[in-house]
From TrEMBL:
Residue spans of the WD repeats: 261-296, 320-348
InterPro entries on file: SWT21/TCAB1_mRNA_Telomere, WD40/YVTN_repeat-like_dom_sf, WD40_repeat_CS, WD40_repeat_dom_sf, WD40_rpt
UniProt-recorded name of the protein: WD repeat-containing protein 79
Family: Belongs to the TCAB1 family.
Transmembrane portions of the chain: none
Length: 438
């Protein structure tokens, strides 16, 4: 593989050191030491070649013990905060951790690079449906005690898992009014990583990370907390009733309501703050819009972006650490990218072009639903996941023939269509500069 000279802002990691990618790995020159200036990490530019290069992929298939109704499709993926690995949720297959290849830590890539096959280094077999999951925000592979993630799933408490051996570290339990344990619908860490915020049907519960068990602070809410996002002392709580609630969280784990935002036509499934903390992006199920909110003036959306979401499935989007790029998948399998330098997606709405698709780039990556997008925290790499549940077509019979009374006269097609383009994969894509690309 041809090597490209490294720029001063690129990461410089010795081959014998522990594998981690952090801003502290930025090269320090003699001039910096002499002047006392601290080097600053600069996020690399994305899409300079206006293309994506597949680096590696992984897929999961149905085992012999699984029934015909078992469909192991990907339901989400998230890069670890230090960028060394990616956590993926696979339906009926639990949690999987896959590592980034060592050559991608500092090297660039060429167009003739061989596509690698990803193997899971950690596999946690979850017994129920995983509702939500998140990494510890200060996760660093050089500090093993920080390498962990949280999950909340059906009929189980909030659980913390070790990212080195996949063992269960501890659990955090929430109990309802009749002292029955209930599962959390969403979970996240506070910005400083000292507390765990779990969202339930009628309650927000805050746990101390260092005190597992049932001790927690409670705050009543009027609607189920389907998803959450945090930034500094702000907490945004999305609900299935299409609303978003903003709270200010104090050091004593008390919640002060700031206000509510309305605009989605379906239940809110995913939210994320921009790196500057001034804007919030939200998406909902069966809603083709991404709403951009200015939290200082939250009465109406600041901007509306278009994507394809035709099902109740949660479709993740992501914002680059530099705050210049917004990426999202869709049920049509297309990855859409908004570049703030080309399309100012953080500006106010142009009422004449709300319905138009103003995405900077479109990449038809998957033949099935592209349900998750995760941008690497330090390298120009994007992880995407595909898959969704496919129902059997009721208009066909055992031999696969189409029932004649259920066909149309014009196109001779089935009235109720059930897609047969089933796909289930996790793919890493290179979004940086690719030399000698023809």
């Amino acid at each position: 593989m041809d090597e490209i000279p490294m720029e001063p802002e690129d990461l410089d990691i010795e081959p014998d050191t522990a594998l981690t990618i952090t801003p502290e790995n930025v090269e320090i020159s003699e001039e910096n030491i002499a002047t006392g200036d601290q080097p600053q990490f600069q996020y690399p530019p994305l899409f300079p070649s206006k293309t994506l290069l597949e680096l590696c992929n992984s897929s999961w298939s149905r085992s012999l013990k699984d029934g015909d109704e078992s469909q192991p499709y990907l339901r989400g993926c998230k890069w670890s905060p230090d960028g060394t690995c990616c956590l993926a949720v696979v339906n009926n297959k639990g949690m999987h951790v896959v590592e980034l290849q060592k050559d991608l830590y500092v090297d660039s890539v060429t167009a003739d690079r061989v596509i690698d096959v990803l193997d899971s280094v950690i596999h946690v077999k979850e017994a129920g449906l995983v509702y939500d999951y998140c990494w510890y925000p200060a996760m660093n592979s050089c500090v093993p005690e920080t390498c962990c993630w949280l999950t909340t799933l059906q009929n189980a408490p909030v659980q913390m898992w070790d990212a080195f051996d996949g063992s269960l570290r501890c659990s955090y339990r929430g109990f309802n009014a009749v002292d029955e344990m209930e599962p959390a619908l969403s979970v996240t860490f506070s910005s400083d990583g000292t507390r765990i915020i779990a969202g339930y049907k009628k309650m927000l519960r805050t746990f101390d990370v260092g005190r597992p068990g049932r001790d927690c602070a409670e705050h009543k809410i009027s609607s189920p907390a389907s998803c959450m996002a945090t930034d500094s002392n702000l907490l945004a709580v999305g609900s299935w009733n299409t609303s978003i609630s903003l709270y200010s969280v104090s050091e004593l784990d008390t919640y002060k309501s700031i206000g509510k935002m309305h605009g989605h036509s379906g239940g809110v499934t995913h939210m994320k703050f921009t790196p500057d903390g001034l804007k919030l992006v939200s998406g909902a199920r069966k809603d083709h819009r991404l709403l951009v909110w200015d939290i200082r003036y939250y009465r109406r959306p600041l901007n509306i972006l278009s994507r394809a979401v035709d099902t109740n499935q949660r479709v993740y989007f992501d914002i680059s650490p530099c705050g210049k790029y917004l990426m999202t998948g869709g049920t049509d399998g297309i990855l859409k990218v908004w570049d703030v330098n080309k399309v100012d997606w953080t500006s106010s709405i142009d009422t004449g072009s709300v319905e138009t698709d103003n995405a900077s780039f479109k990449f038809p990556l998957h033949s099935d639903c592209c349900n998750s997008v995760s941008i690497h925290p330090y390298r120009p790499i994007v992880a995407t996941g595909s898959g969704q549940h496919h129902f059997s077509d009721p208009t066909t019979i055992d031999n696969g023939d189409i029932s004649p009374e259920r066909t149309t006269d014009k196109t001779n097609e089935v009235e109720m269509k059930y897609s047969s383009n089933s796909e289930n994969c996790l793919v890493f894509w290179w979004t940086g500069e690719v030399p000698n690309l023809t």
